[in-house]
Predict the structure.
Amino acid sequence: MKRILPLIGAAGIAAMIANPASAFQQITHKRIAIDAINYMKAHPDTTNYAALENAVTAAGYTIDQFAETVGQGAFDVDDFQDTFICGAITGDCVYSPVFNAGASIAQYTSYWHFQNHTRGGDAHGNDLGGYNYDLLTVWGVIDDLAATWLVNDHLDDGNGGMTGFCYWFLGCSEDSEYNSYGITEANYRQGSYSTKGMYEDFQDIPFQPIDNLGNYWYSQFLNSPTAQTLGFVLHTTDLLQPHHTWTTSDLNHSGWESWVADYYDSENLNADDKVTEALASFTPIDADATDIRPLLTEGGSISYSLGGAVLNTTDHNARREVANVVVPHAIAMAINIFNHAADKMSTNASGELREKRAGLCMNLWGGVAKNGADVRLHSCSNSANEQWQYESSTGLIRSTLNTNYCLDMAGGQVSNGGNVQVWSCIAGHNNMTWDIVGDTIRPRVNHGIAIDAYGTRSGNNIGLWSVHGGSNQSWTVEGI
């Protein structure tokens, strides 16, 4: 067990921990996410960019808007107020040191942002644990000061929770602010084992590792795809920050992250050739996988393998050498996540196709899915025969009423007057392969043609016509 420093007074400790462990600076997290998408845009032949762009466009974003939103999500994770630590004596629960008195003081949520490669499994049963002060292999004054400040304090576990001291005539005082054990820790458990007792004394709390955090947010994304949730996943690029795999809040931590932000552009840390080389270090996520932790741990292994150089020196050349490895690998890891997520954004999404001229919906006429069934306009009712699923990777638009049936160009007629119907889905068949371009739906084999609403009343037919920019070829893709 490490020695807890003698109590030296609130002002002294507060001053010394005012430069906290927040891994890459928030702006760097955002840059990495945006640069990953820009790389995919520049390399559509080697990435899943086409599927990503189609899914993003269908959701009503431009690709640049999507990149900004995802990047902001990655930025925001450091600001989560989801981790409160309660005083052993007072029972007062706060989410940052000194009651968040200074904007530069870390929030306790950052303790979930480590994966300790210097040790093996943890008390939860994870293959690699997270931050645990008592088991740190490398540490510095800031680690010691935080443990002194928080000695015997515990994770907020809700009303009536544990405190270090109780008085028989007053009971246990507890100012619970947020059930961090019952919500945050439970979310990040990801199949591992926990008890409240593990979180009773800060100095030996085994915080869950960051790969569990990333996997939780990816499961939320798969359940309901949003750009913001995917951005939360991308905060796991902390794993390419050596301090977060060697696991310490100190040892040039703050100075290193500032250096990366300052020299990100001038040292060309995001250069295409560096990212291309870095991509070869990762095993792509299997198409059917829902657990992304193997990929994340590969990223952590890369930063750990650099031997902790930036923990031990502030030399510019040494920092440049490490940064030229970890930043391109962070971008490459993000690309692997985007490649996998792109198909999930489309295959898990569904909604109405509403044309903009009359506000009517694309309806599987008659409410029966069968070969040759017509597709017409109808007043929107949110019924199953007005719900469609677009798969950007295959270009299929499936009927939610029966997902074995897809929008089809009758008789393969890709020309003015061609009819739109449903037919048994055949992936790769030109008759039923579509792209969403802006707010139009176009055959992949001919982007000069678009799906066209032939009238303004329920029952009017839907077919194909040359792209002309009219509102009867513009569709609001609700939910897709």
